[in-house]
Amino acid sequence: LDIEFTGLRSSLSGPQQISLFDLPSEWYLKTRQSVQQFTICQIGLSVFSSVEGEFNKYVAHSYNFFLFPTTFGILDSEFSFQASSVQFLNQYGFNYNKFLKNGIPYMNEEQEKKIKHNILTGNWRVRSSLDKDQIKVVIDEVTRWLDLAEEGDRMTLPGIAGFQAFEVQLVLRQALPNIWTMLKDQGVVVKKVSQQHRWYLEHASCDRASCWKEQILLSARGFSVFFQMLVKAQKPLVGHNMMMDLLHLHEKFFRPLPESYDQFKQNIHDLFPVLIDTKNVTKDIWKYLDVLAPYVNQVNLIRAGVPKINFSGPDYPSIRPPILILTVRRWPGASEQQVYREFQNLCKFDVRRLTRSQFLLLTNKFKDARSILKEYRCHPTLQVSLYRYWRHSPNINCALQ
């Protein structure tokens, strides 16, 4: 599984930026905002099936889906583009026409409940003022045609496709009791019928209103139908650095991301009981598939206090390098940004202020921590040492005073 998005992460500043200091729950809450802001534009999926009669041999069937949020009735999503993501997609020849014009619709379960209720009860509305104007023109055109048409005559409304075709048919059928509509390749076909024939068509097994509306709902669900088939299959889901993929799958096809990090983990584990993130798997391990067991449901986490999330149980403790403490002397008013720039030529640290003259430093590389300790242990103005909670925490110092 591999997913492309219109953006990855909001340009948040200060405490809202993700950091190596973040607990998984903190990282989740920060990233949740970005997932709600951007949308999926493409999903790549390879399905592996065993070859009958062949031991340990598989055939891969690969598919590429361009997606676009469902816009029908009350559903009208908003999403953002991020310049860096657009540049990345351009670099690899992304086809925006297939995304924006021909993208497969999708919705999550909450959206599906709303639109299903509105479609089946007839309590729905046209999405925008532009659509209202277009539909008014269509009704006027059909009404003028009806004045001259005889029973059995037909007219075609060309250029109407997608969900607009469903909306036009719903409006026409509700507004005009002596017509019937059909969706053909060339557009929406309108036929003048008697009221008795109209009653028969509405109750015919092949075109009852309830059946017709169910077909509309099925079309509106689009790729969500396939997502539910994927969940039902309960097959192992493999991705690379797939945390953002899982967040978007939950938000766009299942339910809006919950505020609770633990609830998110439980939901994903229920949807996909077996996850394998190849970011955590080295090339040599693939030679022996039984060695993959420790990596199941361990999904890589980018820039946080732990390197991965365990979707089948409690998260493992951090194996990051130890936190360092920087004590600043003769540098009044030093800020986190200034401290970061001081060290950026040697290595990259996340910086967090502890007191007026002390800062916490954290990196994800042990060699960088050792290098800074050696370089700055006896520095005249910037002294770096290992952080000890019981010794350096302001909370402990206040309690002891």
Q: Which sequence of strands runs across the widest sheet?
A: 12-13-11-14
The tally of helices reads 15
How many domain units?
3
Number of strands: 14
Fourth-level CATH superfamily of the largest domain = Ribonuclease H-like superfamily/Ribonuclease H
Q: Write down the Rg.
A: 29 Å
Strand content: 15-25%
Going by helix content, strand content and strand pairing, the class is alpha+beta
- Multimeric state of these chains? single chain
pLDDT < 50 stretches: none
* Amino- and carboxy-terminal Cα gap: 56 Å
What share of the residues lie within helices? 40-55%
Largest beta sheet, briefly? 4 strands, antiparallel
Q: Would you tell me which CATH topology of the largest domain applies?
A: Nucleotidyltransferase, domain 5
The averaged pLDDT comes out at 86
Any idea of the CATH class of the largest domain? Alpha Beta
CATH architecture label name of the largest domain: 2-Layer Sandwich
SSE order, as H and E?
EHEEHHHHEHEEHHHEHHEEEEHEEHEHH
Q: Which of globular, elongated, flat, extended, rod-shaped describes the shape? A: elongated
Protein name: Poly(A)-specific ribonuclease PARN-like domain-containing protein 1
Pfam families: CAF1
InterPro entries: CAF1_poly(A)_ribonucleases, RNase_CAF1, RNaseH-like_sf, RNaseH_sf
GO molecular function, one term: 3'-5'-RNA exonuclease activity
